[in-house]
């Protein structure tokens, strides 16, 4: 359902994504691991043109985009088919939890306000935040803010959900509730591409683990293979370090 071919991103002379190939099946959960600075965030960001790749093709559902000559229309198409969960939540500080969830439904998807509000209310209930609907981000814990961030992405009904280290900015006490919500999303057979350092979670949730180093996919396979029987020396070293 999702096909990435030859995806290439350079910042100046630095090649950050070196012709990445990656196919993701419908409902598949792919976890990306790797040392910092290897292009994991850039990979996610290139899929919706938060960073514009210089080359490669991205296919999501019925839309295929040649990165080198992507039109505005195609970029909007990729953005409508993906939903992004950021490490730092990226909520609007001046909007309530409910308004944060409604925002893209109205501005990106063009839904009527009333319908967006009904959808946001439904999502707040699913994420256990019904009583926080009218709260502003500053009045929420880190865990609650990230659950709003995930709820906002869930509300979009996107073909692909992208998670960029969704628990890395959290105090340890809030990590569990955010991972629980991600498990709940996974149970809905949502296609997910997740960057995380939570190895136990990766083992449990991933259909496939992808190890990146230096802008390339070095090794991939089921968690039992990649995490328990790593072949590449760089992956072995990485796993020793993250324990
Ligand atoms: P990761 O998420 O694996 O830690 P990133 O994708 O954030 O890695 O970054 C990969 C490389 O690209 C790093 O060397 C980083 O410094 C560089 N990079 C990322 N964003 C930019 C940018 N906007 N301008 C220049 N270099 C960048
Ligand atoms: Mg990153």
From TrEMBL:
The record's CDD domains line, in alphabetical order, gives: ABC_HisP_GlnQ (cd03262)
Query: GO MF annotations for this entry?
Result: ABC-type amino acid transporter activity; ATP binding; ATP hydrolysis activity
Gene3D superfamilies on file: P-loop containing nucleotide triphosphate hydrolases
Answer yes or no on keyword Cell membrane: no
* This protein's UniProt keywords: ATP-binding, Nucleotide-binding, Transport
- Coiled-coil parts of chain: none
Provide the ABC transporter domain boundaries.
2-239
Pfam families (alphabetical): ABC_tran
InterPro entries, per this entry? AAA+_ATPase (IPR003593), ABC_ATPase_HisP-typ (IPR030679), ABC_transporter-like_ATP-bd (IPR003439), ABC_transporter-like_CS (IPR017871), MetN_ABC_transporter-like (IPR050086), P-loop_NTPase (IPR027417)
PROSITE patterns (alphabetical): ABC_TRANSPORTER_1 (PS00211), ABC_TRANSPORTER_2 (PS50893)
The UniProt entry's sequence similarity note says: Belongs to the ABC transporter superfamily.
**Under which name does UniProt file this protein?**
Amino acid ABC transporter ATP-binding protein (PAAT family)
The lineage is:
Bacteria, Pseudomonadati, Pseudomonadota, Alphaproteobacteria, Rhodobacterales
């Amino acid at each position: 359902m999702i096909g990435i071919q030859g995806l290439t991103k350079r910042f100046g002379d630095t090649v950050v994504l070196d012709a990445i190939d990656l196919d993701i099946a419908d409902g598949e959960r792919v976890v990306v691991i790797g040392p910092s600075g290897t292009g994991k965030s850039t990979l996610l960001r290139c899929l919706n043109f938060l960073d514009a790749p210089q080359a490669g093709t991205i296919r999501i559902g019925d839309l295929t985009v040649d990165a080198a000559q992507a039109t505005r229309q195609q970029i909007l198409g990729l953005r409508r088919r993906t939903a992004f969960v950021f490490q730092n939540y990226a909520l609007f500080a001046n909007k309530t939890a409910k308004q944060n969830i409604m925002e893209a439904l109205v501005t990106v998807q063009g839904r009527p306000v009333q319908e967006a509000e009904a959808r946001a209310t439904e999502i707040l209930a699913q994420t256990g935040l019904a009583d926080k609907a009218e709260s502003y981000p500053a009045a929420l814990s880190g865990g609650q803010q990230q659950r709003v961030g995930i709820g906002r992405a869930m509300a979009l009904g996107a073909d692909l959900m992208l998670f960029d280290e969704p628990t890395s900015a959290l105090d340890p006490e809030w990590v569990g509730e955010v991972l629980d919500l991600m498990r709940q999303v996974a149970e809905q057979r949502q296609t997910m591409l997740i960057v995380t350092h939570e190895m136990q979670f990766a083992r449990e949730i991933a259909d496939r683990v992808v190890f990146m180093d230096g802008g390339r996919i070095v090794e991939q396979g089921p968690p039992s293979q990649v995490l328990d029987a790593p072949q590449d020396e760089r992956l072995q070293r990485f796993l020793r370090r993250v324990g």
